[in-house]
Amino acid sequence: MGVAANIAFHTRTLWLFAFSDLKTIVIPSTIFGVVNALAASKYRDSLQTIHYTEILRRSPLVLFWVLMHYLPFAINNQRTPLAITEDAINKPWRPLPSRRLSPSQAKVLMFSFYVFAQLCSVFITGGLRQGVGLIFLGTWYNNFGGADVNPLIRNAINALGYICFISGAMEIALGAPLPLSTTSVLAKWFGIISGIIMTTVHTQDMYDQEGDALRGRRTLPLVLGDGPARWITAVWMVVWGVLCPNFWHTTLPTRTIGMALALLVGLRTLAYRSVPSDKVTFLIWNIWVSFVYALPLLQS
Asked: Contacts by 128-134 with C-beta closer than 8 Å and gap 24+?
C-alpha cells in the first residue's frame, strides 16, 4: 500500500469512528463555540471579547478541537467486545466489526488521541480543563458502567460531557479560558443546557432499544418502558421550548421557530415509534439543540 493510499485508509478509519456523532456532538458543539463567542458581550460576565473576524478565523480550530477530543471517546466506546458485537448487527461499517483494525490497535489509537487532544488544548489555547474532564467522563461512561447501570447516571454523564464540549469549544473560539463562576449568566446558560440534555438526550436511545438490551444497558426506555420515556421527552420539550427563548428575551419569530421545533420533536416522539422514525426524530432534536445554542446571538 502506497503512502497516499495508506493515509487515505487511516483517514477513512477515523471518519468511520466519528461519523455517527457528527450531528450530535461535533457540529453542534462547534456551532455553540463560534456563536456564543460572537455573543460574548451579551453575557455581561467577565468574558474576553475579540473581534468577530478573529472568531471566524478561529472557527476551523474550534471544529478541530472538538473532533480531536471526540475521537478518543468514540474509539473507547466502540472497542469493547459487546460494542463490537452490537455494531456487527447495527453498524457493520464501523472500523472494528469491519476489521479495519483490531481492538488492541484501537486501544493504542485511543490513548494516542487522548494525549494529542490535550496537547491541542495547550497549543491552541483553551479547553484543557474540559479535555481532562472528558477523559474522566469517557472512561466512566465506557469502562466503569456509567452508560449501562442506571439511566439517570447515563444521562447525567451525557449532560456533563456536552458541557465540556461546548464550553471547551467556546474557549477555543475566544482564545482564552472562561471565568469560573456559579452565578454568571454563562453558568446559568450552561445549567439550562445541562437540564436539556439530562431530560431529553434519551431521544437517542429510543431507536436503539434492541441493541442496548443486547448489551445489557439500562437506558430510560428499557427501565421505565417505551411509552413513559416518550412522554418524559414530550413534556420536557415543551418546557424547554418555552424557557430557553424566555431566558434570552428573544424576538417573536425566534420564539416561534424554537417552539415549533420543540413541539415537532415532542409530537413525533409520541406519534411515530418505528426505528426509522425515531432516527429522524433524533435528527430533528439535534437541529433544535443547535438552534438553542444560537439563541444568545438572536437576543432582541
From this structure: 129/168, 129/177, 130/69, 130/164, 130/165, 130/167, 130/168, 130/171, 131/69, 131/164, 131/168, 133/160, 133/164, 134/69, 134/73, 134/161, 134/164, 134/165, 134/168
Contact (CB, 8 A) for 21 and 74:
yes
The stretches of the chain forming alpha helices (DSSP H) are 3-18, 27-38, 52-78, 81-90, 103-124, 128-143, 151-174, 185-200, 209-215, 220-224, 226-248, 252-271, 275-293
Average pLDDT over residues 219-247: 97
Q: What is the rounded CA–CA span in Å between residue 87 and residue 80?
A: 10
Mean pLDDT of 110-123: 96
What are φ and ψ of residue 250, in 5° steps? -80, 170
Span 171-199, pLDDT tens digits = 999 999 998 876 789 999 999 999 999 99
Lowest-pLDDT choice from 16-20, 33-37, 53-57:
16-20
Please answer whether residues 168 and 199 qualify as being in contact, where contact means their C-beta atoms are separated by less than 8 angstroms.
no
Domain ranges of the chain: 3-298
Please tell me which of 2-6, 99-103, 115-119, 144-148 the model is most confident about, judged by mean pLDDT. 115-119
Angle at 139 between CA 63 and CA 21, to 5 degrees: 35
pLDDT score for 82: 84
Cell, residue 88: 456487527
pLDDT of residue 5 exceeding 70: yes
Distance CA(183)–CA(45), nearest Å, equals 10
Mean pLDDT, the chain, as a whole number?
93
Residues 6 or more apart in contact with residue 53 via CB below 8 angstroms:
none
Could you give the dihedral angle defined by the CA atoms of residues 152, 153, 157 and 159, in that order, rounded to the nearest 10 degrees?
Answer: 20
